[in-house]
């Protein structure tokens, strides 16, 4: 793997308005999905933002979807993070995994649950709901469709809007994993402890 196929731009090199475009993703007005606290342990994801800074229009469009997934989704933050971590694992996206290990902890997943995401839906410790979410991520990544058994299990607990958010969350983070891997975005130093 060659590092930096698209070298990240330093913030001082970002096009005009790019900082506002990126920070808009982190300014939700929905108390149900709070922003993870910014503290010394909070990873910045600066390398990913620096790569996105090469294409402000694309970033602005994509950030609308990510902002929804992060802060306005009908599924709970814990459910979202199970899906995102599973996509990151399936796509071998170390960057996405590291970013969301931190966010999963904020969303209430215990370290052993985060580790268990790598095993997938077959791990016996999962609840039936968690198992169905992880299976949905597997099926969407493999076949671009949730299978009948999994859809039946999910629809017993989730309404139509929540089911749509499951699909679009997996899709949004699948696309991001593709970009991170294709452009060989290097882990920021502050993300390395979560990798």
Explain what the structure shows:
The protein is an all-alpha fold and 195 residues long. It has one domain: AhpD-like. The protein is built from 9 helices and no strands. α1 packs parallel to α3. The model has no long low-confidence stretch (mean pLDDT 89).
Q: Compute the number of helices.
A: 9
Total strands: 0
CATH architecture call: Up-down Bundle
**Alpha-beta classification:** mainly alpha
Radius of gyration from the alpha-carbon trace, in angstroms: 16 Å
Largest sheet: none
Query: What is the CATH level 1 assignment?
Result: Mainly Alpha
Shape: globular
The fraction of residues assigned to DSSP E strands is: under 5%
CATH topology annotation: AhpD-like
Number of domains: 1
* Helix-strand string: HHHHHHHHH
> What fraction, in percent, of the residue positions are helical?
55-70%
Question: Which terms would index this structure?
Answer:
mainly alpha, AhpD-like, 9 helices, 57% helix, 0% strand, globular
Topology overview:
Elements: H1 18-24, H2 46-52, H3 56-72, H4 77-90, H5 94-106, H6 111-117, H7 128-143, H8 148-155, H9 160-182
